[in-house]
Amino acid sequence: MKKIFILIVAVAVFSCTNDKKENSQTVTSTSSAASGDAEKDTAAGTGSSTVTDKNSAAAADPKQNLVGQWKEHWGIGVETNVNYNDLYKITVDNGGKISINCINKKKYKIDQVLFDGHEISFRKQNKSYPLGRFYVYYKLKLHDDLRWMEGPITNSKKQKDYVKWGKVTDKN
Questions:
Q1: pTM of the model
Q2: Nearest to residue 86, comparing CAs of 67, 108, 66?
């Protein structure tokens, strides 16, 4: 009996402290009672609680954090011979498939896109490369602020570099 009482007190304390957080989470409680707002307001009432993030669309599908336009920056912390900044558009279709397109250059084909919620990897082919197929393999980690991604790239010639992508806009 003491263990149950301690558990109820712990849940009540946790629920009360969870309600005090500002702008980070909203706590919604549902009750099994047909009516009774008093029971909905009590922390130890019977029912279930659901924690919903303010950015519920992005929280529901982390792929939505990628949607928008991104500007690529080369040679972060290392020397590079790349002196341009491409602009990319990332979209997610209704089936959840991620597409990446280079806005300012149509010569790239991007495929093999994988995203685990924190890191995106893909292959970019330069279709205009005169000596056959030339690929660049990306592995970018999404920052906690959801405004930057960065990581290593390796090309078909086994040359390595480091890139950083900054989010320009959240819109398609």
A1: 0.63
A2: 108
